Each structure stands twice: as structure tokens, then as C-alpha cells.
Structures
1.
Amino acid sequence: MGVLTIITFFPLVGALVLLFIPKEQKNFIRWLTAATTFIPFLLATWLIFQYDGTKIGVNDPNSFQFVERYNWINAFNIQYYVGVDGISFPMLWLTTLLSFLCIFASWNIEKSVKGYMMLFLLLETGMVGTFIALDFFLFYVFWEIMLLPMYFLIGIWGGPRRIYAAIKFFLYTLAGSVLMLLVMIVLYQNVIDPKTGKHTFDMVLMMNQANHSEWLVKSGTFWGYGIRYVLWFALFIGFAIKVPIFPFHTWLPDAHVEAPTAISVILAGILLKMGTYGLLRINYAIFPDTSNYFCQFLAILGVINILYGAFCAMAQKDLKKLVAYSSISHMGYVLLGMSSLTVAGINGGVLQMFSHGVITAMLFLLVGVVYDRAHHREIQGFGGIGAVVPIYMGMTAIAFFASLGLPGMSGFIAEVLVFLGSYQTWPVYTMIAVFGIIITAAYLLWTIQRIFFGPLNEKYKDLPEINGRELFTLIPLAAITILVGVYPHPVLNIISGSLNHLIEVVKNPLISVATYGF
Amino acid sequence: MVSEISFTTNDFLAVSGELTLAFSIVFLILWDIFSKTKNRLTFAVVTGLLIFLSAAVSILNSDVGHYFSNTFKVDGVSDFIKLFSAVVGILAIWLSLPRFQYHGEYYILLASVIFGIFIVASSADFIVLILGLETVSIPSYVLAGYFRTDRKSGEAALKYVLYGAVSVGIMLFGFSLIYGLTGETTFTAIKQSLTNLSKENHLLMLVSMILMMAGFGYKIASVPFHFWCPDVYEGAPTPMTAFFSVAPKAAGFIALSRFLIDAVPENDWITYNWQELFWWISVATMTLGNLAALPQTNLKRLLAYSSIAQAGYIFTVFTVNTQESYTALSFYLIAYLFMNLGAFAVVDWIERQTGKVTLEQYKGYGKKNPFVAVLFSIFLFSLAGLPPLAGFIGKFLIFKALLDGNQLVLAVISVINTVISLVYYVKIIREMFLTEEPHQEIEEEKTELSLKWFLIVCTLPTIVFGIAFNPAINFLETAVQSFFNTTSQF
């Protein structure tokens, strides 16, 4: 049993152990869960030092790292096949980090703590598994496993409209993933393992288009459309719902606003990234030719996301909804970077995935802090509290500035790389997208002004300052933001090898779109 | 063409399981009459053991082949269905114990239904098939109306009888047309004779096929022969509803499969029309089942419509008609058996606690009895087809069979239906966990020990077949292979 398996299933084992602990012992349950999530984090951190940045992964089965491979279901050649490369490793580490911190952010949950923690641990297993799975079937199972705990975590511990938000999230995501299920089966039927001559779910083999069947490469059609377009699109919708890409985004504001703080953090920090991760890992690598063909389409959607998200955020009265829409906007940068098919663009995009995961986690944690004290999130309802809670204001300022891309913070590096790359390919779209930065700056600064400056709202003159536990969850994230902002080399070092290779694959696909068409 | 009827010992060995069960039923009747004690607990347990014994005997004596002048066929799938129905029967008896501890005849009727399923599973002849189907139906009518004083139960029985009589009548008419075309009643002989069917008789063949679908459709509860289903499920005693939703359906599926494989020739025209017919039936069945389930608040009706929808998913395999698709069908039946019985067990338990089966009763149940509520959710999620549960693997296999058979559109319709079905399954879960009544004092409920174990017995396969399904697949693949390969003894 390798270290990746331990990271994945340790939380699940922890959840099973929790089953036998009486539910009255709330504090013990909390500490036990914290310990359970700490071990995977430690292991993932240890892996950073073991990670070899020169091994590229992506579609080369020999250069994935920490690989574990066992036969699972022989009847269909389904394997337990896990491993990481530059695309998945930063997300894996971020997942373990945020899971650990979120336990502390959930400390003041009183309603059935045991159930909450068990579901949370199950969720962590699903998330980690999704990032490391290299077998499509395994990937799908993990992908779906995340849904159930998420539904309950939003639906039971959420805000007033939690039931609606939970089912909306569930249905949207399921609708996307059943399409993925069909694509998975079609791929299985049309990809042959050259060594054994059998059909396979192995994603790395699927990424070699030489293994694709004649039907999949050339002759296949569905209602008159080339099969590769159809499959690409079906996968795209599944992932677009998760990102979420306009117009599939409507579940997100509801889910984020109703979810408890820690779950919003996980949603925005990890789950959204699964969409773009899936696009890179599956759409880009398995269908490089089709992705190449559709990259302008992705770029346009990216620009729409950036601007639409930013404008919506500006109009929000609810602080959490504002952060939720800002997530939509920031995921647009990832898309724009990815679609540019340049080294800088895609590196920026993936760095943005990482950096946004950290920054948005901070933002949601900060919203949670103020909500716990004031019991509302109306931006207009505050005013002048900067003088009452200076440390809180400081932390918020760091997070907001990071989010708007202040130099010296990770968001800046990511966005600059994205724009550098995308300008080479899409100059016009990039120029339009740059306005997104201004709007982002506008709504974030305006929000800071409305909450912290101006005349003090008398209601909050005794607002308690941020406490140690909350700072404990925020400071590591702030440190990462600044560290990566000043010295992004370690992260880029991990991701760039794989991404540069992926870009080459997409730019020069083995098969060309010309052989098939609409 | 049977000129001289002669049966050998082999013939009787092949039906040893059926004979065992028949003698067991006679023995049980006599025991019930002459026994002095009122409590029928031992009686029920012995009934279960005898059913199991019969299934075991028939599996032990399973030399693949045709018997009794090609009217009776033993193969891997018939063995599978016998074992399957025995398991359903035993679980149904277990589920019935708290309610029917003093009713010997109840268990005898149940055993008779299983006897009928044994016959259906092996029948390779129209007459045997009809006999088998009627043996399944007649005790079922009595069981559906078992609560004589309850109006709903009476209505259920009457509906069941009327629909059953009419649809079997129509089916017989369809058979008679085929008999007119071929002059044969055994499947294999029909297939031979139909292979050279002349063009002008094609239409007649199609008409007879459609007429026969009435009988199969009635057993499976597929659209448009599903109308009896919700009412019967609602009116029948809940343990019986659980039983009806699984065992007779499986019998219907197996009868249809055998008919398709053994009696329908590889004729392009016929195959094409069959597939077209099945395509529309399956789409209508799953869509109507799912849409009708959405507004239900009576859990028994909801699960009735859900079972119609589930039958729709299973039905899609007939459009493909390959070995792979029958493996998928068999696996789905296994998954369906455990998740559906588990779900009905919970409904039965709550009905016994509160006397009602409406959604209201489930409000806040997650607090009241977390153990039962969590396991119930597992069954419901499995029914909805979420991994890593058995229901997902069942759907996965069916979709895979569909895509292998180039039924892409049907596969897309099926997955859309899966998403719709989630809405009403989650509705129950929402009531249990998400909605609370703040003013109501919730006291924890004590679960009956027997129910606890019943639920565990149903949960384990639901999870295990979702994670380690390789052995089951291998077993079913071999079974289906023999289902296809046996040739008749001429």
C-alpha cells in the first residue's frame, strides 16, 4: 500500500472509527477529526520533497509518480490505478491542507457534530481520490462519492434555503456526471490496450490516440456530428457545471451562500477546481485535437465568466454571494489561460487554480468569521468596523488584495501569466478580459470601504475581535499567498513540466480535426 | 413433433427441485391443518428452509439441456432465477414474520408463488409457460387481498385478478396465432419453423408478438400494462408488495428472455420490429415511471412507480439482445433484489410503527432512528444509481450493453431518467434528514432486532456488489453463456 492510498483512505478509516464514538463527546470528535485530516496533510507535504519535477506525467505512463496499480475488476479491466503529476499534485496538497484547516473552521458547529465530521471525512476521501485517479472508472466513482456528503453537508448544516440549494447542487452535478458516465463507456469500448489487446479504462492509455479505434477517430457520428465533438462536448458540460462556466453557474451562488463556512471553502477551494482539472486531464489529454479546435470557444467562455462574474459580484448585497460570484469570475482566468495554448497561459491557469483555492478559502473563512459574530452578511449593514476589529480588517485586506491581484501576492503572478499567454493567442479577448481586473478591484475595494470605513455602525461597537482558532485557519493561507506571490518558483517548478508537455500534445495532436467534421 | 412420449429418469432429475418444492407445499398444507399450536414461527422458518432446499436441489441436479420433449429447459440462468426467487422468498418470509406469525396459509401461498417461478424459469414451451405464469399469479391474487377487511387490499386483489386475466388472455391469443403459423408449442420447434416464415405472414407474426407482450408486460409491469401496479402495491400487505416488486418481475423478465432467445429466429425483419417495439416500451416505461413517481407522497405508491421505472431500465436490454445485455439484466436483478427489499422493509417497519406510509411519517426520522434512516438512504441512493453501490454497477452494465449495441440515444434517455429519479429518492432522504420539526419532541426509536439484521443483510450485498462485483459478473457470464448455447435434443 502506497502513500497515495493512505492519503486517500485515511479519512475514510477515520470516519469509520468515529462511528463508534459516542456522539456526546463533541470535543473529542473534533480533535480526532482534526488529527485524522492532519496525517494526510503531513504525508502530502512530505511528498513535496519527494516530488521530481522533471518527470512529466500527463500521457506518459512511465513518468507518473507514486504510482499504485492493482487489478480491481478483471471482467472489465478496471484497475485501482493512482498516481500524480504536475497537474494533480498541487491540487492534492491543497485538498489535504484545506480539509485540515476546515475542521477548525467547523469548530463551532454544534448540531450533530459526529455526523458532520464523518461526512466531511468521506468528502475528503472523494476529493483526494478524484485528483489522483488515473483509471476512468475509479475517477468516476470518486467523483460521484463527493456528491453525497456534499448534499448532506449543505442540506443539514446550511442556511435558511439550504434544502433548495442542496438539491440544486446535487441535480446539476449529477446531470453533468451521468453524461461523463456515457462518455466513459464509449471510450472504454473504443480504446484498446496495445499490450493485452483488451478494452481498458486506463486514462493514460486513452490519452494515446493511437489506441483509439477507427470509429472513434474517424467514422463515428452521432446525429450527424463527428463523435469526437460529441464526446468532447458531453465531457465539457460535465466539467463546465463543476467549474462553473456560464451558463451552468446558477447552482453556485445558492450552494455557496447556504453552505456552512467550511463547506463553502471546500466548494470554492477544491470542487470548482475539479472542473478545470477534468478539462485538462480528460478533455485536453484524451481529445487534444478537439480541444485544439474548441479552444477559441473556451476562451470566449472564459472572458464571459470573468466579466459576468465580476459584474454580478459588484451588484451583490450579501458578502458571501459577492465572494461566490468572484469565484466565477476568477475561474474565468483559468479558462482563458488554458485556452491560449501557450506555456505562460496554461501555467498561469493552473497557478490560478492553486492560488484561487487559497485566496477564496481565506475569503469564505473571513465571511464566516464576521457572520458568526454579526449573524448577517449584509455589506450595507456594517460600516466603520475597521477601528473595532483591526486584526480582522488586516486579514481581510490581505485576502481582498490577493484576490484583486495585487503584486506580491499569488493572484498577481497567476493573472499576469494568464494574460501574457492569452495575449499571444487571443489579443482581443485578452484586452476585453483585462477590464475584469478593474471591475474586480472596484467591487473589492468598494466592499472594504463599506464594511470597514466610514462612520461606525453603533450596533457593532463591541464586535469581538477575530480569535486564535480563526487566525490559525487564516494565517497559513495568507502565508502561502504571499510566499507564492513573491517566489512562485516552487509551484511553477512542479506544474510546468507537465503543463508544457500537455500544451505540446494539444498543439500538435496525433490526429487532426480535418479527418472528421461536423 | 412429438410422436411418442417417453420420459427418462433424467427428466425427473431435472425437475427434482420443483418436485421437492411441490411435495414441501403438500406437506406444509397438511402440517397447517393438523397442527394444534397457533404460533406459526417454526412453520415459517421451515417453509423458508424448504424453499431453500428446493433451490439447492435443483441447482445440484442441473445438467444443462432440454427435458420432457423439449418443453423444459435447465441452464445457468434458470438455476440463477430459482436461487434468486428462493432468496426473495426467504427474505419475504423474514419480513412477514412480525405481521403474520399466526397465518400458516400465508406462507404456503408464498411457497406456491415460488413454485410457479421455478416453472417459469425453466419453461421452454408455451403451455408450460402459461401454466407457470398462472401458478405465479393465482396465489399472488390471494396474497394481494390478504387483508380481507381492508378495502384497499380487496381493491388490489380485484385489480390484480382482472388485469391478470385479461392480459393472459391476450397473450394466449398471441400464442394461438403463432401456433397457427407453425403448428408447434415448444420454443425450439417454433424457431425452426419460423426461420422460413414467408413474407406474407410477417404482419401476422408482428401482431402476435404485440399481443404476447401483453402477458409479459403485465408481469413486468411495463407501460402500457402497468396500471395495476401502484394500486396493487398500495393495497397489498407491505411484505407482499416487496415480494411482488421483485420475484414475479424477475420471472416475467426471464420468460421473455427465454422466449426471445429460443423461439424468435434470427430474421432481420422480426428482429428489427421487436427492437423497435422494445425501444418504445422501455422509453415509455422508465419515463412514465419516473415522472409519475415525482408527485407521490405515499411511499408504497412512490416505490411502485419507482419499480416501474426500474423495470424500464432493465427492459432496455431487450433492444440489444446480446449475451452481455443478459448478464447486465441478471446483475441488475440481484442489485434490485437487495436494495428494493431493503427499502420496503423500512417502509413496512414505519407502517407498523405509525400505521401510515405517507411521506409525513419520515419527517425528522434521521434523528429518531439514525441507523434505519442511514441504511434506508443507502438503499435509495443505490436505487438512484450512485456509486459505489450495487445499483450503480447495474446501471453501468446496462448502459454499457446499450452502447455496445449501438443504442446511444436510448442510453442518453436512460441517464436523463436517472437524474429525474434522483429527485424523488432524495425527497425521502430530505424528509428524513433535512427537514425538522422544531416544536416536536423527538424521542429515539428502538429498532426491532429482526429488522436490524434484515437491513444489514440487505445492505451488505448492496455495498459489496458495488465495489467487488467481479465474481458476480464472472458467475453470471457463465450462466448466460449456457442460456444461449444449449441446443435442443431432436
2.
Amino acid sequence: MKKRVYINATSAISPNGVKGEDNILHAIEPDYKDIITNANLRRRMSHIVKMGVACGLLCLEKNGDRPINAIITATGLGCLADTEKFLNSIIENEERLLNPTAFTQSTFNVIGAQIALLTNNHCYNNTFVHRGLSFESALIDTMMQINEGDSNVLVGAIDEATPTTYTILKGLGLIENITMGEGAQFFVLSNENSATNNISLKGVKTYSGKYNSAQQAEFIKNFLADNSLNTNDISCFITGDNGMQDSIYTDVNKLFPSATNKTFKDICGEYPTASSYGFYLAVDYLENHPPDTQNVLIYNAYNNTNHSLILLEK
Amino acid sequence: MEELIEKLKQQLINELNLEEITPADIDTDAPLFGDGLGLDSIDALEIILILEHNYGIKIQNPSEGKEIFYSIRTLADYIQANQK
């Protein structure tokens, strides 16, 4: 029998819907000195690393003393600023004399590794880099870890927006009429309900191809049926609608006429792991609404690819 | 010499991203590694790059590294003696 996967702690460093002058939704950052107290480690960390490590540590703080058995992170594009710095350095220096810090800090798993180092955690540590399905892949791994015996798993997602990436994506026509964003969200998922809010992750499903409206509806209905639910059982339907005119989200809201409809990319912007902010919003919704609110479904996709469904229940 | 020392201090602050440290905070004769500024092996690699990029100096004999990298003054002495 599948174990129930409770959500015991959450944290987010996100833009909160505030756009910068560059039209990007940049995360509103805390004073990192208060959270990452080791100055020698902090000075080497780029924006995304500080954002991710601080968010992870804040989540662990909320989790209290309960030991963590696994750290699982997700990122779609990784540490872009350091990667850009390193690649520029390769060109400028004709592939010689490369800057070691930018290289060591530009790897995808640096955030999960730094959290483990700072908390002396020697357990399972894995990073998923699966484009727009990175966070969902991390959640699936988390559920498997808990079903195989782990008690508490720290799982999170991080992506950053840089001017270079913005220019490249805009040049490729991938972010026309879309607001780019960034952020870090972390969660402690557990086989025990220590937060007493009784909120749990019930299921995750992904599909990386393209769908028409009928296939999309079938994908959603089948997932709900797999979880012994139908569309009327969903109290709140949260979508990753990013405002594109030919939105793949046009028809899906019609599947849930009785549900409250919410969006999250107007708050956090578009980025590969933005669904982690949808997840954060879903937990917040379940925490702050009456007991009859039972099931929240998150549906995310980008440009009709990387479709994902995440189901939470209370 | 004093001008070179000030320049080196600023380059170290910039390249090693030494937060909340000004050139005045760095003791010219204090050890850079361990005590003093508390730099480590990755910083040593960054300083090698500073020497090569900015002064065209390559350290030919690695065994001299400990002596050359001892302090800002020993670094400045080495640059002055070897810069072409």
C-alpha cells in the first residue's frame, strides 16, 4: 500500500508579482547574511545558489529537529550566471586560464550539495535537470523515497533569470508576450503528519509531448480516475497559464466549472520549475481555506509541451 | 610599490568577492591563507589567474608558491621582480 506523503514545511523566495525595469519578475531576496552565516561559503555563491541554499535552509528551520533522510533538488536551466561567466571566460582566454570558482559553482547539483554540506547531511542527494518537468521528476523521486522507507525528504526547485538568457530566449521567439521569472521553493515531505495541517501530495503525472484539447482532457480525467476522483471533486484548479494568446489553458478551466480557478505565473513568472511555486500556492490555499476544501489540482505546461499534473489533498 | 599594493588589494577584493572588506581592512603583511584573510586553495587558483591575466606572470616553480602567496607584500614583491 502506498504511504501518504505529508507536506510538513514550505518556503519560497519568489518575485511576488513585482516586475523589474527589465520586464523580468526577479525574486525578492532576504538578507542572506542572516541565513547563510559562513561568509567564506557565501562569497562564492551566485544569485541562484544563494537563493536556493537560503530557501532550503529556511524550510529545514520550519521543519524543526526532525532528521532529513534525502535532499532532492530540481532545476530546468541550472546556475546560468556562473555558466555564462565560465563560457565567456573560455572564449576570452582562448580556452586557457579558466576561472575555477565559476566552474565549480555552475554545476546543476551545487545547491543540493551546499545544503548537505551546511547541514552535515550524508544521505541520498539527487538533482533532476529535466527541463520543464524537473520539479515533477523530483516529486516522483521523493514519493518513491518515502515509499521505500525514508521519513523526511527535503525537495525543492530553483531557476534564475539572467539578462543573457532573456536575450537568447527572446531572440528564439520563446518568450513572446510572456513574462520571464525566477525563484526557489522548498518543501519537507514526510510519511508523518508533523505539521498537523494534514495536507499531502497524492499524485504526480507528466507528459512531455504535445496535446490537442481532447487529449489534454483525457490526460487530466485519467489522472483523476487513477486517484479515484472526478472533476467535481477538485475544489481548486491551479494552472500555469502564462497569458499566451493561443494558450493551451483555454479549454482546461471548463473541465472544472465548480472549482476555484487560480494561476501562479502572474506572480512568479515563466521558468522551467515554476510549477514549484504553484505547489507552494496550493499548500497555502489548503492551509487557509475551510475543511471542505479537499483536493487541489495543479496543471502546468509550456508552449504545449511538458504537461504536468500534481494533486494535493487535505 | 605602495600603488601596486593598493591595486592588488582591490583586485583580490573584486576577484575573490570578499564581502564587506575594503583595501584598508587588509593588512599588507598578514598571511593571506589560514589566518589573516582566511583564503583557501580555490582562492590560490584565482590569485594565479590574477597574476597571469593582469601582470603576465606565470609561476614557474610551484614550490615557491607558499612564499610568494604569503601576504600582499610578498605578492607585490614577486610581481615587481618578475613583471616584464
